[in-house]
């Protein structure tokens, strides 16, 4: 069914999205590290910018796990539990 609904290059698109998410996560980690190491005057650090950067980091880290076709069963499947589909 998935081959009928999605175009032929869909797997390429998911691979590209995964690599974009890796680059975005790397940038977020670098930004959070600069907030931790540098002075406030150099980074213009504020609690809202730290929280927003952390939220973006969480979203970019979860994106590849959503797009990974092997993990269709989600968190329960990663724990080795059976998932009943109705």
What does this molecule look like?
With 86 residues, the protein is mainly alpha-helical. It has one domain (2-67). Helix content is 72%, strand content 0%. The protein is built from 5 helices and no strands. It has helices at 2-5, 10-37, 40-43, 47-67, 74-78. The longest helix has 28 residues, at 10-37. The two termini are 17 Å apart.
- Find the structural class using helix and strand composition: mainly alpha
Count of DSSP-assigned helices: 5
Order of H and E elements: HHHHH
The end-to-end distance, rounded to whole angstroms, is 17 Å
How many domains, in number, for the residues?
1
Low-confidence stretches: none
Described by the principal axes of the CA atoms, the overall outline is elongated
- Please estimate the helix content: over 70%
The Cα radius of gyration reads 18 Å
Give a brief description.
The protein is an all-alpha fold.
List its salient traits:
5 helices; 86 residues; mainly alpha
Task: Spell out the blueprint of helices and strands.
Elements: H1 2-5, H2 10-37, H3 40-43, H4 47-67, H5 74-78
Helix pairs in contact: 2-4
């Amino acid at each position: 069914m998935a081959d009928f609904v999605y175009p032929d290059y869909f797997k390429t698109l998911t691979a590209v999205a995964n690599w974009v998410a890796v680059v975005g996560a790397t940038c977020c980690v670098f930004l959070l590290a600069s907030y931790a190491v540098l002075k406030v005057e150099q980074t213009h650090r504020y609690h809202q910018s730290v929280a927003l950067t952390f939220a973006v980091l969480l979203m970019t880290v979860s994106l590849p796990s959503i797009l990974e076709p092997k993990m269709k069963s989600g968190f329960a499947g990663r724990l080795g539990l059976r998932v009943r589909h109705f």
